[in-house]
Amino acid sequence: MNQSPAETALSRAMIRWSLTKSTPVAETATSWIFRVEQNGRNFAALKILKPLALEEESRGAQLLNWYGGEGAATVFDIHGNTIFMEWLDGSTLGDAVRAGHDDEGTIAIATVVANLHRPRDGAPESLQVLRERFQTLFDTDVRLWPHTSRDLYARATGIALRLFDRPTAQIPLHGDLHHDNIISSDRGWLAIDPKGLLGDPVYEVANVFINPERADAVAADPRRIAARADILAQRLAYPRKRILGWAAAHAALSACWDLADGNAITGQLACLPNLLSAYDQAV
């Protein structure tokens, strides 16, 4: 019987890394994920990348490997389209926020960011420049946006252009750092699934402001926006106005991605007016 591509890659990985048991965990748009065992004792994860997502996911895997386990899950080895890495089965920061612990969640994110942004040599060369990541925002036809929200798109796009016109340090970025991409472990909170970008370090916290999923009321609350900005500015020494600027720009970019995919943008539209207002008030 012919094996599927995932089964073939799994079989090869089991042999390559002397694994003894595999259990399917999830299939996403970009990968198949298995929990595997070594000698019946230690758990690990195999992430097998799908062909259509190989370029972006490979960038993320190389960056995850470069982090060396500091603030992120440890990568043991990468071969072809398969990543052999640390198994994490703790709760996510999203769970903490949905349970009412948003300040604690934001503090944890600041700690993770500080670990991810530690100076390291030999950064991967394949990282995507942040300006390229934002091309969807700049190319989107404003008529795709609801009529009553087109001013939000215009204002957020203008902020994004101003941010890119005022360059800062360019460093490797996780690029998709949100609450449900941060998992608890015996080593603390650890990030997973980076996109692998290169750009302004302040952008790293932008995604925080429209997350976590199933907590739109928290993300859209002006008091929570202010508290998140305060905590991140204080703990990471980032300019508060720049934090809020990237947050608004990213919310609009996220909406453009969803519109292109035919998805609703209810969550982004709930957050964006309050993010823009907070940005306008920030000094």
What's this, in brief?
InterPro entries: Kinase-like_dom_sf, NH2Glyco/OHUrea_AB-resist_kin. The chain has helices at 5-16, 54-67, 93-98, 102-116, 130-133, 135-139, 150-165, 216-220, 222-236, 240-260, 266-281; strands at 21-27, 31-38, 42-49, 75-79, 82-86, 128-129, 171-173, 182-185, 188-191, 197-199.
Structure keywords:
about 280 residues, alpha+beta, Phosphorylase Kinase, domain 1, Aminoglycoside 3'-phosphotransferase, Chain: A, domain 2, five-stranded antiparallel β-sheet, three-stranded mixed β-sheet, about 45% helix, globular
Total count of strands: 10
Strand order of the largest sheet: 1-2-3-5-4
Number of helices: 11
Rg calc: 19 Å
Helix content: 40-55%
The average pLDDT score comes to 96
User: Can you write the helix and strand succession as a string?
Assistant: HEEEHEEHHEHHHEEEEHHHH
Quickly give the CATH architecture of the largest domain: Alpha-Beta Complex
Pfam families: APH_6_hur (PF04655)
Organism: Devosia neptuniae
Protein name: Phosphotransferase
